[in-house]
Write a structure and sequence with these properties.
This protein is mainly α. It is built from 10 helices and 6 strands; from the N terminus they run αβααβαβααβαβαβαα. Helix 3 runs antiparallel to helix 4. It is elongated. 23% of the residues are buried.
Length: 238
Amino acid sequence: MNNNQGLIKNIIKYLKDVYDGEKIEGLSQSFFISNKELDKILSEYFVFFKNENELLNDVRYNYNLIKDMSFPYQEGDYIYVRDLSIENIVYYSKEQHNSYSHRIHSHLVDAFEEKLGFKKERNTKHITIRNKRILPLLTQLNLKVEFLREDCSPEDFIAVLKVASKKEIHLNIDNRNFHYLLTKIKEYFFNFTITAVGQTNKIRSKRGTLLKANNLINAKGDYPSLKDSIDEVFKNFK
């Protein structure tokens, strides 16, 4: 194992500890790196292997360790400044560790997915509205189950589905309930699939994870907790 492999391994162990809610002891200031510094580590890590198969096997192993993790998203970011005038070991709060993990995890996942050749192209057929009644329907759904965070509106949600907005959507319900809601509104759109929704790259889970197609597909459940409330809205919608 070369030095950069060891650095990647240490980052992944740290992410797992934060994700599992383990108490994080003091760490060296140098442990907290920028995305640019992570890119340098990754570029050196990628060229270490003897052949492409060995590289992809190692990347795939590391990717599988972190792909299902998620960390709470917060507006802005804490600043992790290295100050040589103070003690090298630093102690951060749970919120600071979550904030750092959210950023570094997202960057690491994207780098691994690119190296593994996962398709990122969006569906050439964008989601479009079939039935203009979708807006009042989503408005009633949001009043009933509050599936959107307060700073996101049904109009914002529709715009993101149509790939017509740069604004991110933040959910206020878990992924299983959101998956069920998507299956119910499908008939109000053309070219509407769970994969197409994930390919918008603009929808974040209640915990702040950027939802991609695999997250949404895997969220399918037999009887989500809000099923009856969602069904009631559809039953009474006129």
